[in-house]
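Example record

One chain of 87 residues, shown exactly as stored in the release files.
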Amino acid sequence: MTSKKTLKILKLSEILELLAISRSTLYRKIDNGTFPPPISLNERAVGFLSGEINKTFEAMINGAQTEELKELVKLILNERSELEVSL
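Predicted structure tokens for this chain:
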């Protein structure tokens, strides 16, 4: 029997509030590879997977440096690509 994880999606505004940064700063972090990119919800909306964000916040709290954050984001994106979604 396989266990299924419940995925929670956070809105862009929630991420900005949690980090207390501007939208442009967040997207700069994403472009630099130090923050997981959002997923597309539709043509006009994006969301962030809460589990990915929690892992990133934990690393930041523990003092992860830029290169460590980049490695973490790579791992997160690899895990994301291996997700199996069943409807």
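Notes: The mean pLDDT is 90.
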